[in-house]
Each structure stands twice: as structure tokens, then as C-alpha cells.
């Protein structure tokens, strides 16, 4: 098994002993993102709409760095300190995802890093690369 570490300056730098994402084969494991602004590493505070939007933007940046899109996410975990914000997550998620939607869990938690109201992580499956070689497709499957 070969692990490829994914890193981009367009998402918040890791604030602990972890990577932004890890790719194994075509599967990418996206670490939890909180509403940190990558350029300044400052938190989006207050308005939960702005926090949720920043988290999706951070996930999108890591997905792109791994060679994918948010639409390649197959499982999304949403952690909320207040489950009353769940409808807001649904509304904002609809701006970033279209059917078919990923599998998802929404988990109510007592607290999150840096006192934020939302954190999300996910699993992404990258599409098969298309090649223009003259070999039949089965010859370039590993």
C-alpha cells in the first residue's frame, strides 16, 4: 500500500499531527475541516452560514489538490455543536453538491476544535483515468 500525502496552501494548514488528506489508490481520506481562512489561519466566527460555507470551500480546495471534485466525495461526515443548524447545512450543501448526493452522517457533538460550530471530513473516490493508448483497457488496470 502506497500512501500519498495531499497538501495545498489553498486550505488551512494542519494544526496538529495529521495531513490535509491521504490518498491510497483512488481513495482519498479528507481530514476534518473547520472554518479557518487559509490565507490568514483565522477563524470565521459568529454567523453559522459563513462557517459552513468556509468549511465547504476548504474541503473543495483539498479535493482539488487530490485531483478530484466535491462531486467525487462518497461519504461526508458533518459534526455540529448545535443540531438545530442541520437545515442550514442542507441548504448550503445544496450549493456545492448535486444528485447523486454522497452518503452522509450528521453528528451532534459537545465541542469542536477552537470552539467552532461545525467540522466536516469525508472520503472521496477518484474517477478512473481515461487513457488514449492503443491497448485494450484491461491491459492498464493494476
Overall geometry: globular
Q: What is the total number of structural domains?
A: 1
CATH class: Alpha Beta
Discrete helix count:
2
Going by CATH, the homologous superfamily would be RutC-like
Report the portion of residues in β strands. Answer: 25-35%
Please name the CATH architecture. 2-Layer Sandwich
N-to-C CA distance = 13 Å
* SSE sequence, one letter per element: EEEEEHEHEE
Q: From the helix content, strand content and strand pairing, which structural class follows?
A: alpha+beta
Question: Taking all residues together, what is the mean pLDDT?
Answer: 92
Please give the share of residues in helix.
10-25%
Taking the sheet with the most strands, its summary is: 6 strands, mixed
Q: Cα-atom Rg, whole angstroms? A: 16 Å
Spatial order of the strands in the main sheet?
Answer: 1-2-3-8-6-7
Number of E strands: 8
Description:
Helix 1 runs parallel beside helix 2 (86-96). The two termini are 13 Å apart. The protein is globular. The longest helix has 18 residues, at 48-65. The protein contains two helices and eight strands, in the order βββββαβαββ. It has helices spanning 48-65, 86-96, and strands spanning 3-6, 21-24, 27-33, 36-37, 42-43, 73-80, 103-108, 118-125. The protein has a six-stranded mixed beta sheet with strand order 1-2-3-8-6-7, with helices on one face. It is 20% helix and 29% strand. A hairpin with a 2-residue loop joins strand 2 and strand 3 (27-33). It has 142 residues and is α+β, with helices and mostly antiparallel strands. The protein has one domain: RutC-like (60s Ribosomal Protein L30, Chain: A, 2-Layer Sandwich).
Amino acid at each position: 500500500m502506497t500512501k500519498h500525502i495531499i497538501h495545498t496552501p489553498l486550505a488551512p494548514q494542519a494544526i496538529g499531527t495529521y495531513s490535509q488528506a491521504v490518498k491510497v489508490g483512488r481513495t482519498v481520506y479528507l481530514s476534518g475541516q473547520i472554518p479557518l481562512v487559509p490565507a490568514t489561519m483565522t477563524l470565521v466566527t459568529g454567523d453559522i452560514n459563513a462557517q459552513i460555507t468556509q468549511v465547504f470551500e476548504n474541503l473543495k480546495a483539498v479535493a482539488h489538490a487530490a485531483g478530484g471534485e466535491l462531486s467525487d466525495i462518497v461519504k461526508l461526515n458533518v459534526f455540529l455543536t448545535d443540531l438545530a443548524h442541520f437545515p442550514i447545512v442542507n441548504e448550503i450543501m445544496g450549493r456545492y453538491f448535486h444528485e447523486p448526493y454522497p452518503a452522509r452522517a450528521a453528528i451532534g457533538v459537545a465541542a469542536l476544535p477552537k470552539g467552532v460550530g461545525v467540522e466536516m471530513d469525508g472520503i472521496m473516490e477518484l474517477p478512473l483515468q481515461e487513457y488514449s493508448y492503443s491497448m485494450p483497457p484491461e491491459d492498464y488496470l493494476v
